[in-house]
Specification:
- By secondary structure, this protein is α+β, with helices and mostly antiparallel strands.
- The chain folds into five domains: about 5-90, Rossmann fold (3-Layer(aba) Sandwich), CATH 3.40.50; about 110-195, DNA polymerase beta, N-terminal domain-like (DNA polymerase, domain 1, Orthogonal Bundle); about 200-250, Orthogonal Bundle (DNA polymerase, domain 1), CATH 1.10.150; about 255-345 and about 360-375 and about 395-405, Beta Polymerase, domain 2; about 410-478, DNA polymerase, thumb domain (Beta Polymerase, domain 3, 2-Layer Sandwich), CATH 3.30.210.
- About 40% of the residues lie in helices and about 10% in strands.
- It is built from 19 helices and twelve strands.
- It has helices spanning about 5-15, 40-45, 60-70, 95-100, 120-135, 140-155, 175-185, 190-195, 200-205, 215-225, 230-235, 240-250, 250-255, 260-275, 295-300, 325-335, 410-420, 420-435, 460-465, and strands at about 30-35, 55-60, 260, 280-285, 305, 310-315, 335-345, 365-375, 395-405, 440, 445, 450-455.
- The strands form four sheets. Strands 4-6-9-8-7 form a five-stranded mixed beta sheet, sandwiched between helices. It has a three-stranded antiparallel beta sheet with strand order 10-11-12. Strands 1-2 form a two-stranded parallel sheet.
- Helix 5 crosses helix 7 (about 175-185) and helix 5 packs across helix 8.
- The longest helix is centred in the middle third of the chain and has 18 residues, at about 260-275.
- The two termini are about 20 Å apart.
Amino acid sequence: MGITRRMFLTELARRKGFRVENELSDSVTHIVAENNSYLEVLEWLKGQAVGDSSRFELLDISWFTACMEARRPVDSEMKYRLREQCQSPLNTPESEVPSCIARKVSQYSCQRKTTLNNYNKKFTDAFEIMAENYEFKENEIFCLEFLRASSLLKYLPFPVTRMKDIQGLPCIGDQVRDVIEEIIEEGESSRVKEVLNDERYKAFKQFTSVFGVGVKTSEKWYRMGLRTVEELKADKTLKLSKMQKAGFFYYEDLVSCVSKAEADAVTLIVKNTVSTFLPDALVTITGGFRSGSILQQEVWGKKMGHDIDFLITNPGPREDDELLHKVVDLWKKQGLLLYCDIIESTFVEEQLPSRKVDAMDNFQKCFTILKLYQPGVDNSSYNTSKKSDMAEIKDWKAIRVDLVITPFEQYAYALLGWTGSREFGRDLRRYASHERKMILDNHGLYDRRKRIFLKAGSEEEIFAHLGLDYVEPWERNA
């Protein structure tokens, strides 16, 4: 669990007279875990070199909270034991453990808590290459088949080493099964190697790395005989959009990863600028960088990304339709704005949520490229004996920053949609439609049976409306 939450629960227990150890020792009798399977905890114990792990009671956090409520240790009944979720390998033959887990795996990633611990990276990397290739070919069915399989294997609390390990699992089609079998037997997939060596795939991979370039534009350029970004830059006959021109001009910066430190610096710029015009506004970083606190970000959150997204809302009565225009105008005056494209809101009151799984929302939004100055760059130390002695060392980096304005009553839905991951959001919408007869998008949730919109002030309320257990942002790495 996150460091902050663990510290809070530890202090709570100690105030009630419980003895809680910071490290594993001979005096420990009970080990409590949150959002971990029995196998994950067992694997952790092996790393502690404790010898016989059967002397510990391995318990879910629900036992701990029951103790807090009773103000005494309650019996560690079977319902609290982690081994109840899947029988212990001590009691169950090893060959049956994966099939035991398979019986409990949902087809929907929104019912699976998936952290960044991936035991099957060699498979999921292969699946994502296959999915990307099918996306370039606009074959949505096969693309989704590999994406769902990748999502599923990221969730598994054990490495797949034989075909029996995937027996009974959902989302494993014939194509996926063939790739898994070949990797198990040969160590790699010939189909994946074929894709990686494919001229069309390599060209599309490069083209779509440019800001503002999608599959259709890539197809057009490929048919023109172009194959690399260098060839695109050299071709003066290409008609480029304003966004694509910026994408080429700042290409090296934009294809490099954005670190958490850079995300923190941009967050400070965005919050300070927004508060100049709307002091009560709530500015929230979303996407891969979102987490409950800085400490939990360090432990659980995504460390790197390629752009930074922010949701902006105003909890008070005051609205400012011109906020985005004022923000970008100020950045322009400050010399920070390298590119900007503002999309005005197209939302209509009481319109039904979109049935399309990957539909864009209708919020007012702004796609920008900002100049972020890099600390520690000293131009005075530059060697002026070189031919380019008049040049200065570039002390800034171009970073993509997206701003989205949402009405406060739609904020929880927007936050859920913009947090990701992509597959998690897709499955939330699929689950809402197929299992609950509801329509979910970034604006709201509509109950088709009752013919009403369901209000929500938090993500937790949305999960409750859907009848789902709440999944923390760092557990949505689907």
